Amino acid sequence: MYAQQVETGLSTVRTTADMADDERAFQARIDAGVRIEAKDWMPDAYRKTLIRQISQHAHSEIVGQLPEGNWVTRAPTLKRKSILLAKIQDEAGHGLYLYSAAETLGVSRDELLAALHSGKAKYSSIFNYPTLSWADMGAIGWLVDGSAIINQIPLCRCSYGPYARAMVRVCKEESFHARQGYDIMLALARGTAEQKAMAQDALNRWWWPSLMMFGPSDAESVNSAQSAQWRIKLFSNDELRQRMVDQTVPQAEFLGLTVPDPDLRFNAETGHYEFGAIDWAEFHNVLKGNGPCNRERLRTRVQAWEEGAWFREALVAHADKHAAVKEVA
Ligand code: FAQ
């Protein structure tokens, strides 16, 4: 199933015959389901792939706070505001777990953040879209966190121990996030005609970007085959995207909303929904930095980093002073 799909992908994987002894032993451990830990020997390319994926994931959590942060002061009730605040704080926590997991691979947080701030490192395309109405808070929780869970549940079983363990807690928190998003959508869908129209408009704008979160199609995915061999990826981009569609369409129907895809239909034979073509030109454009909010998001992160310099310096000064006092004692 998955192996067949990734064969059409762009990356090639090494057979055991091509591998040196230590690499073959490493692959055998992975194939046997043994978790790789920070101090274990690992091929440089495995380390590099994990640093790439985990740091991109961390950046996504941190940048992902911004679209929702836009609505904290305008939440309709105190209760909604407290829930939204808690969710956004959770995302910061996820970023911290993930930066810590990346650091176990020998890269510093400063290096990772410098790559984000220079525009070299990617973060999820989804966070480059604007949040225009309160209904967007519902759509993000429901669709974006919903998609994140589908992608991340398998990561709890991935081969790298620190990443897999971080994902367990992240997934628990993400399910609260998805639930609160659906609850907002439910309240709007059952509200006035104007509120229902607002919910529909949010679904219209977030549906396709949410499908893009899963990455390029299997035929275009450059990293999939190698990541599958290393059990970093347990399911392909297209498999997880299909899972999202199958799970979400009935939820939209329950809300009385229409998924903005004229080609969407249920195939009773396969038991899956068939859906229309994704606009990959839009996806690549966002990845290149030309999405509606790319520049604004990056500017905000860089500004936050610069304005926080005094605080980081104070922490280091305090730590140095503390260490000096300890030495004297
Ligand atoms: N956006 O060969 P593949 C969240 C890049 S967390 C931007 O298929 P791979 C929680 C990809 O990096 C959301 N770039 O790559 C939350 C690669 O470029 P590279 C983040 C993308 O790594 C909710 C190139 O395209 N989740 O939402 C995207 O095997 C609400 C070719 O792609 C994760 O990061 C994209 N959507 O598969 C927070 C999960 N898709 O690096 C706040 C972990 C692909 O070679 C509020 N990551 N690219 O230059 C993964 O599972 C994988 O990295 C994929 C991509 C599936 C994202």
General shape? globular
What is the SS-derived class?
mainly alpha
- Helix-strand topology string: HHHHHHHHHHHEEHHH
Could you give me the name of the CATH homologous superfamily? Ferritin, core subunit, four-helix bundle
The end-to-end span amounts to 63 Å
Q: How much is the radius of gyration in Å?
A: 21 Å
Q: CATH topology, what is it called?
A: Ferritin
Q: How many discrete domains?
A: 1
How helix-rich are the residues, as a percent range? 55-70%
The tally of helices reads: 14
Main beta sheet strand tally, sense and closure = 2 strands, antiparallel
Low-confidence stretches: 1-9
Average pLDDT level: 94
Bound ligand species? Phenylacetyl coenzyme A
CATH class assignment: Mainly Alpha
The total beta strand count reads 2
In what order do the strands lie side by side in the largest sheet?
1-2
Strand share of the residues?
under 5%
**What is the CATH architecture annotation?**
Up-down Bundle
Organism: Duganella phyllosphaerae
EC number: 1.14.13.149
Protein name: 1,2-phenylacetyl-CoA epoxidase, subunit A
Keywords: Oxidoreductase
